[in-house]
């Protein structure tokens, strides 16, 4: 892993919003910051003082202690000792771990130098519930070697995940080809992003939209993917599907993508050193997800 550039893009979630058509709240929401905070990455700003508490985390496929450490801003050693883990042992997905004195959950988006990613294909799960763990189990049952077929899953607050949480799957972490779009050989050259939900029947949540724009922006910038190469599954030549749903808000998505300012985001350079670490805002309510002033180098 050390030869890869590991760039961690993080964003903070609030737990106050749920999709109008999906009344159940997340079962394990993260602790909320006590008060809104200024951007944390500017040297002149005081360090954030998020409220912390012990939380239970259900391990997603491919997650490591190092990732959880970043996700909750907790030293890896604290997670290891709180759960009596062997340091070198891999975490088994589906296992529950105690994260002591966790900060609000943040998405971890590792970026790896790789020239093969030319497209982004957007999917919906066509289910009301889901997360990377659930899709992994489902896809393994269907015989998908390597499990969950997407590279990223954007959660809707069901199961144990937070609304708008972005999960990188094992397929992405290993930079393996996808199992999400056979048409036009997209599995070999496209990053598959799946939003949990059925957008033939309902809408994505606001937090999912923010997360999608954020993720796509990072991927396009890093892998130099043009906007015209962001396709819905059903728009891929030879694909016979209405995924990601007839009600997918393409116009809104493209409008937001155009208005997102990501100055300071990473470009792929082939360097072997970490370039940048991104931090999202700690402001709990984030009606519009602007990157301005929320990105800094470390
Ligand atoms: Zn699809």
Low-confidence stretches: 1-45, 266-298
Number of distinct helices: 7
Top-tier CATH class of the domain at 119-259? Alpha Beta
Largest sheet: 5 strands, mixed
Q: Work out the number of β strands.
A: 9
User: H/E order of the elements?
Assistant: EEHHEEHEEHHEHEHE
Measured by DSSP, the beta-strand proportion falls in 5-15%
Q: Would you identify the CATH H-level superfamily of the domain at 119-259? A: Peptidoglycan recognition protein-like
Structural class: alpha/beta
How would the global form be characterised?
Answer: globular
- CATH topology annotation of the domain at 119-259: Lysozyme-like
**Rg from Cα:** 18 Å
Hetero groups in this structure are:
zinc ion
The end-to-end distance, rounded to whole angstroms, is 20 Å
User: Which percent bin holds the helix content?
Assistant: 10-25%
Average pLDDT score: 77
């Amino acid at each position: 892993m050390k030869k890869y550039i590991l760039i961690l893009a993080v964003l903070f979630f609030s737990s106050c919003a749920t999709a109008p058509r999906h009344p159940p709240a997340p079962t394990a929401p993260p602790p909320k910051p006590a008060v809104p905070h200024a951007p944390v990455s500017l040297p002149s700003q005081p360090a954030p003082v998020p409220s912390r508490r012990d939380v239970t985390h259900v391990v997603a496929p491919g997650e490591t202690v190092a990732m959880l450490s970043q996700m909750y801003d907790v030293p890896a050693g604290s997670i290891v000792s709180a759960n009596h883990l062997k340091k070198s042992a891999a975490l088994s997905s589906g296992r529950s771990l105690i994260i002591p004195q966790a900060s609000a959950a943040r998405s971890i988006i590792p970026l790896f130098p790789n020239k093969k990613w030319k497209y982004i294909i957007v999917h919906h799960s066509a289910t009301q519930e889901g997360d990377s763990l659930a899709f992994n189990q489902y896809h393994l049952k269907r015989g998908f070697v390597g499990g969950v077929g997407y590279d990223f899953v954007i959660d809707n607050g069901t199961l144990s995940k937070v609304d708008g949480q972005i999960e990188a799957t094992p397929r992405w972490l290993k930079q393996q080809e996808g199992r999400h779009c056979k048409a036009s050989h997209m599995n070999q050259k496209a990053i598959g992003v799946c939003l949990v939900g059925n957008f033939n029947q309902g809408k994505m949540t606001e937090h999912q939209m923010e997360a999608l724009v954020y993720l796509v922006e990072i991927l396009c910038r890093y892998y130099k993917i043009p906007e015209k190469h962001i396709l819905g599954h059903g728009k891929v030549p030879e694909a016979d599907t209405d995924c990601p749903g007839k009600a997918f808000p393409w116009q809104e998505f493209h409008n937001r993508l155009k208005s997102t300012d990501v100055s300071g985001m990473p470009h792929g350079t082939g360097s072997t050193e970490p370039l940048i670490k991104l931090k999202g805002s700690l402001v709990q309510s984030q009606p519009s997800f602007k990157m301005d002033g929320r990105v800094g180098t470390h």
